[in-house]
Amino acid sequence: MAVKPGRLGVGIIGAGKVGAVLGAALRAAGHAVVGVSAVSEESRDRAENLLPGVPVLEIPEIVERSELVLLAVPDDALPALVDGLAKTGAWQAGQLVAHTSGRFGTSVLAPAKAAGAIALALHPAMTFTGMSLDLARLADCSFGVTADPAMLPIAQALVVEMGAEPVVIAEADRVLYHAALAHSSNHLVTLVAQAAQLLGDIGVEAPSRLLGPLLRASLENALASGESALTGPVARGDAGTVAAHAATLREHALDTGNGDILESYLAMSTATAARAARRGLLGPERYLAVQAALSSDDTAADAAANDAANDADNTDTGNSQN
Fold first, then answer.
1. Can you give the pTM of this predicted structure?
2. Lower Cβ count inside 10 Å, N or C end of the chain?
3. pLDDT above 90 (res 303)
4. Which residues 6+ apart lie within 8 Å of 230 measured at CB?
5. Domains plus CATH for the chain?
């Protein structure tokens, strides 16, 4: 089989934000989208906007018509969908079957492979709006691709045709790969929302304007320099500041009846301190002082902060105060 796929008849199962956009990208690369499944009114509108002229069909008919079937459905729905189609004899020998799940590799497509289909896992590592602007964003996107070694060039070529960069992920590493992406992207949204909430609670009218430059610089520095870019009171071992943060967030949790911000701050500060200590950015005494500052024992936290302050008076740490 050629490394670069020829012009394929592509069927899209799932006209969600991902499926419709990737279908449009494959169409722009010269492939023919022969059908799309769309159940909700929203997905039908999306298919009409991104895939004009493509018929909305039932899933079995799409599979029957397609040389490449793109399964863009939620992770939890994927195994049952693949197995159900296998039980009806829908999969065809030589047919390309690709899914867009980050969690799964090609093992989830085993029922299709048993019928002679070629299994590919193509996960775009970006968030989607489901609008045409996503097509341009694919140029800066990477896909986590998994396939049998002989079929890997096909997966890579399809990704390149969509304008993105393929990154090979081993079958056994798919869940860890997906956890890394979810932890960074999904939890970043939560972190920003929590920070904006705190600023809003104290009367800041435009939290995003205040946070924007700080967050963009932090992200760019972290991507460029890794943990060497770490700054702030935890990294410096400023236990008194950390204790003050923890105390006021406890008060905020009591006042609002919502403790998720406190829990996140404590968890992330604990992880930050531990990673800084392992890298030698935070000495043992300061690390213990920060740990104590994060505890609910205010007396212990105050004592640890005083010890850290005394240590700072006697030691030139060279840390920035930014």
1. 0.86
2. C
3. no
4. 272, 276, 281
5. 9-169 (3.40.50.720), 177-314 (no CATH)
